[in-house]
Design a protein that fits this description.
This protein is an alpha+beta fold. The chain has six helices and 28 strands. The strands form eight sheets. A seven-stranded antiparallel β-sheet has the order 2-1-17-16-13-14-15.
Length: about 425
């Protein structure tokens, strides 16, 4: 089965070179109301027809606002570091024929290639929740890819705005490095975590770091927007690897390389696994009615429950059809339910298949569910994500389901599913 799905990934040589993909955690294959334009749940980075990368060139030390205007009017990309009311350092950037630049942020202005908004945990009921005050920067970060093999991708904090400028004001964390070049951090920062051993079941979480405007690596600040930067980490780099996570303080992105995506399951593969489970005709051990996972489309939309929908007692893993007994709490009926098979008490939730292939670390069968949300994927995938601490708020970290961003139970982040086959 996997050999045929591998063939799906094989592209004719005339196709554009794919550097990789950025996938937003918390969405099960698409945004709740569908992907639209530059606002979507995943963004593929392809080699551009013409290079649009930039690299540092001239440095100006300016003492008056008029000097600053004169530099900005030249129409080149630049980064402005305001040191005081009377002094600004402007670093001009010139065209780089060897790199492609992609910009990510909350802004819908033209310079942004991938529009990202705050992820609402569990907010996949078909309605996009409006965030009143976003913590994601309008021009959050930029990814720069080398146009020649091995197509190395590097990440930098901050993106150039419509006037081709990155502006670090007086209050922003900024400094002059020993070699003389200026650098700084954005307000809420761009955090990156490279997994140890790549993106596979044996991998272990790396250490979360902060990336500077110039791409250097720093330990985390005391709080997300503290004025004082962390310490420079000299033996680490801003090069993205398969499975690297990028946190923009409101949304977390997963970077998958083109090579890594070649080894992920395809939509066809996941659909075949769904049909395989349903073909085995799992039954509710009490009602003896046949259960069936909803279509991938319905699972992606997190839409209304179906009559044959499998439900699970998360504390023990026994899979049932829906029934309305065994309540231990009148106020929250499905949080404390007694399993009729083993009498264990715990949450009782519907099961939904994980439909975003990029979150799978292997092509195994969907045998395990995340706790407490009930998203189902392979054993190795649930165990991988249950070990990954994701930034939450200004200084907290916790593991979460990649398909809906729901915080996992600290005592039991996943449950092995126990299906009953047909009696006949």
């Amino acid at each position: 089965m996997f050999s045929s799905s591998q063939e799906e990934h094989c592209a004719p040589s005339k196709d554009p070179v794919k550097y990789g993909e950025l996938v937003v955690l918390g969405y099960n294959g698409s945004l709740p109301n569908g992907d639209r334009g530059r606002r979507k749940s995943r963004f593929a980075l392809f080699k551009r027809t013409k290079a649009n990368g930039v690299k540092p060139s001239t440095v100006h030390i300016l003492n008056t606002p008029q000097d600053s205007k004169a530099v900005n009017c030249k129409g080149q990309h630049s980064i402005s570091y305001t040191l005081s009311r009377h002094q600004t350092v402007v670093v001009e950037y010139s065209h780089d024929k060897d790199t492609d630049m992609f910009q990510i942020g909350r802004s819908t202005e033209n310079p942004i290639d991938f529009v990202v908004t705050d992820t609402v945990a569990g907010g996949q009921d078909g309605e996009e929740t409006q965030i009143t005050q976003s913590t994601i920067s309008r021009f959050a970060c930029r990814v720069v890819c080398e146009r020649n093999p091995p197509y190395t991708a590097r990440i930098y904090a901050a993106g150039f705005d419509s006037s081709k400028n990155i502006f670090l004001g007086e209050k922003a964390a900024k400094w002059k490095n020993p070699d003389g070049h200026m650098d700084g951090l954005t307000t809420n920062g761009v955090l990156v975590m490279h997994p140890k051993g790549g993106f596979m079941e044996e991998s272990k979480p790396g250490v979360w770091r902060e990336i500077s405007v110039c791409g250097d690596v720093y330990s985390l600040r005391e709080t997300r927007s503290a004025q004082t930067p962390g310490k420079l980490v000299e033996n680490e780099s801003n090069i993205l690897q398969d499975g690297s996570l990028v946190d923009l303080c409101g949304a977390t992105l997963l970077w998958r390389t083109a090579e890594g995506l070649f080894h992920t399951p395809t939509q066809k593969h996941l659909e075949a696994l769904r049909q395989e489970i349903n073909a085995a005709r799992p039954q509710c051990p009490v009602g003896l009615n046949t259960l069936a996972f909803p279509s991938m489309q319905r699972s992606r939309a997190f839409s209304s429950l179906e009559d044959k929908q499998p439900w699970v007692y998360l504390a023990c893993g026994h899979v049932h059809g829906y029934h309305n007994w065994g309540h231990r709490s009148e106020r929250e009926p499905n949080t404390q339910r007694e399993c009729p098979m083993c009498r264990v008490v715990g949450p009782y939730v519907p099961l939904w298949l994980g439909c975003e292939p990029a979150f799978y670390v292997d092509t195994g069968a969907p045998t395990h569910a995340f706790v407490p949300c009930g998203h189902v994927c392979s054993e190795k995938s649930v165990k991988y994500w249950a070990e990954i601490p994701l930034p939450h708020g200004t200084h907290a970290f916790h593991a979460a389901c990649p398909f809906c961003a729901t915080q996992l139970s600290p005592s039991q982040g996943w449950s092995k599913l126990i299906f009953q086959g047909p009696v006949d």
